Amino acid sequence: MREKLMEPLAIHRRQFLRGDLRGRRVAIRPPWALGEAAFVERCTRCDDCVKACPESVIGRGSGGFPELDFAARGCSFCGDCVRACRAGAFAEAVGPAIEAWGHRASVAAGCLAANGVVCRACGDHCAVGAIRFRLAPGGRSHPAVDLSRCNGCGACVAVCPVQAVSLQKPDSGEVAA
Fold first, then answer.
1. What predicted TM-score, i.e. pTM, was given to this entire model?
2. Domain boundaries, the chain
3. Mind listing the pLDDT tens digit for each residue in 145-177?
4. Most exposed residue of 40, 111, 154, 162, measured as fewest CB within 10 angstroms of its CB?
5. Geometric angle at alpha carbon 123, from 141 and 54, rounded to 5°
6. What fold does the segment set 101-177 form as a domain?
7. Using alpha carbons only, what angle is made at residue 85 by residues 83 and 87, rounded to the nearest 5 degrees?
């Protein structure tokens, strides 16, 4: 009987080096960026959107394409990146912040508050009040994210002392890089 050979897994070098063999981590493009394929096709990597960002959350990412990095602060949804782009890599009309991209905050099991340590940094920095703490038995407070209120600004990501907060697309399970 012949053994069925496994088909090789087609992964990009970038995915391998990041340890993302399943390709679940995705770059977060600036607000109102076109879909990934159209964005990459139209973006000239000129850095106009990077220079225009007053919050300095847009930087050069993989392949030189702009990505959001919430290491220091969140996005204010000012729209300066959209107005600075001459290549047409963004939607023409800037809409409400909650429509900027599909990412929303997610709190992992390593959260200090969920493990009995008093911490509410993410909730304190959430301008729209999407992260609230619910009292649980034993006096612990567990963070809960209201996905209908979360606009994905990333302010909660930057302040988490244990990196337990990330942005994800609720429908796809993709995790922001």
1. 0.75
2. 101-177
3. 999 999 999 999 999 999 999 998 876 555 554
4. 162
5. 160
6. Alpha-Beta Plaits (3.30.70)
7. 140
